[in-house]
Amino acid sequence: MSDPAAIVETFVRLTSRCLDALLTVYGGNERPTVWTGLWLVPRDGSDPVRSGVLDELGSFHLHGVGCRFELDSGEDLDVDWDWDGRAVFNSWRILMYAHSTGDEAVTEQALRATALQAPSVVVLEADKFIFSHRRYDVTRSES
């Protein structure tokens, strides 16, 4: 039997771990034009990237306004940044994580209901969540 609370908490914990690792190597992100996706800017000054490897975790791939993490364990995680620069996720992303662990029994509705009550997340909308600590929020530079 699936445990939605454990799934939500594990999603938040693992995604936080991946984002922490990302921020250790990359100092920020940029979106050069409206038509291009995000690029990560390495702290060492080398060229921006859209994908790479996180030591002892797995790989990451930027897409549009988000990032997908493929862990060495086989688990997949995904997070976006909204137009206000907040790291956001929803019940569908948590469900995709659960499926990547082999859990096909849990429902998106159960995960949404659990996330709405989870202490580790803040509810922005009925199905849009941010991390309670907000350390993954980025500020868009003003042009």
How does this structure look, described?
The structure is a single chain. With 143 residues, the chain is an alpha+beta fold. The protein has 3 helices and 9 strands; from the N terminus they run H-E-E-E-E-E-E-E-H-H-E-E. The strands form 2 sheets. Strands 3-4-5-6-7-9-8 form a 7-stranded antiparallel β-sheet. A hairpin with a 2-residue loop joins strand 4 and strand 5. The radius of gyration is 15 Å and the shape is globular.
Helix-strand makeup class: alpha+beta
Average of the residue pLDDT scores: 85
For the largest beta-sheet, the strand count, sense and barrel status come to:
7 strands, antiparallel
List unreliable stretches of 5+ residues.
none
Distance between the termini: 51 Å
Radius of gyration: 15 Å
Tell me the number of strands: 9
Strand order across the biggest sheet? 3-4-5-6-7-9-8
The total count of helices amounts to 3
Concise overview:
This protein is of the alpha+beta class and 143 residues long. It is built from three helices and nine strands; from the N terminus they run αβββββββααββ.
How is the secondary structure organized here?
Layout: H1 4-25, E1 26-30, E2 39-42, E3 51-54, E4 58-63, E5 66-71, E6 76-81, E7 87-89, H2 91-100, H3 108-117, E8 121-125, E9 128-131
Antiparallel strand pairs: 1-2, 3-4, 4-5, 5-6, 6-7, 7-9, 8-9
Tag the structure with descriptive keywords.
143 residues, single chain, alpha+beta, seven-stranded antiparallel β-sheet
